[in-house]
Design a protein that fits this description.
271 residues, alpha+beta, Jelly Rolls, Arc Repressor Mutant, subunit A, 5-stranded antiparallel sheet, 51% helix, globular
Length: 271
């Protein structure tokens, strides 16, 4: 089980990360002091302590910034570990399937998280404890039930978005779910029951970018994260994004980014 969980203190949260970064594990950052901001899947989030940020596998983090007075810790878990908790489907949807969760919490919630972090940290060093793994599993299970209850209260609050903003939000969610296989504006317009022209006009008015701009940016951002934070070959990335050939993928990437996938990866080695 120890290989399924990694604990991070404030100084090691950013250590070794190259952006954009492709999230492949359930990652939670707890902010106990200062401010935390990040750009994830084209959404900018800024939180002031006490707060919690939950990143999910498949998401792409473009940047993370901390104030000088930031304090906090993190917990990173393999999806296999969270699956082993056997949480109800409704709770898993709230915690691990919906969009990234960023929220301000009470001091009481921070105290619970801090206690969990300390208990798990202590247990991980108890190599002679035959019940260590089960205790850790039950601690996380109890914690996630509590977090799910807390999040249910937040999600029951009325939305402050305008109808136009809600449509843009639905488009963004559709892109996150389908960008690997769907790069045509018509697909998203049909899902939202509107024309492609209206969709692009709406997005341009609300975000300053057209529908095609957002789709291309997401595809290339994911490709960049694979080039920077994985050992995938360019052909494998092309296949992952369902391009008909590596050549077509390379031309697409260069048109949007200004340089080829190979040149982009080479530029990272010079940093």
């Amino acid at each position: 089980m120890l290989k399924d969980i990694e604990l991070l203190d404030g100084g090691s949260i950013l250590k070794g990360l190259r952006f954009p970064h492709n999230i492949n594990k359930v990652t939670q950052i707890v902010i106990t002091a200062g401010r935390f901001s990040c750009l994830v899947d084209f959404h900018i989030w800024s939180l002031k302590a006490p707060a919690v940020a939950l990143f999910l596998p498949g998401q792409v983090v473009e940047s993370i910034e901390f104030d000088d007075d930031f304090a906090g810790f993190g917990m990173v878990m393999n999806p296999e570990f969270t699956d082993s908790l056997n949480l109800p489907v409704s709770l898993q949807e709230r915690l691990f399937i919906k969009d990234t969760q960023f929220y301000t919490v009470s001091g009481e919630v921070i105290d619970v998280l801090t206690s969990l972090y300390k208990q798990v940290s202590s247990l991980m060093n108890q190599h002679d404890n035959p019940y260590r793994d089960e205790i850790i599993r039950h601690l996380f299970s109890a914690y996630y039930y509590g977090l799910g209850y807390y999040m249910h209260g937040l999600q029951s609050q009325p939305s402050a978005m305008t109808p136009q903003q809600e449509k843009c939000e639905k488009f963004m969610s559709l892109v996150v779910e389908n960008f690997k296989t769907q790069r045509d504006i018509g697909f998203y317009a049909d899902k939202l029951c509107m024309t492609g022209k209206y969709l692009s006009t709406l997005l341009k008015q609300e975000t300053g970018m057209t529908a095609l701009d957002w789709i291309e940016r997401h595809v290339v951002l994911y490709a960049k994260s694979c080039l920077s934070s994985t050992s995938m070959t360019i052909q494998e990335i092309s296949d992952e994004l369902n391009f008909p050939s590596q050549s077509v993928f390379g031309k697409y990437f260069k048109r949007v980014e200004g340089l080829s996938p190979k040149a982009y990866r080479h530029s990272l080695s010079k940093e």
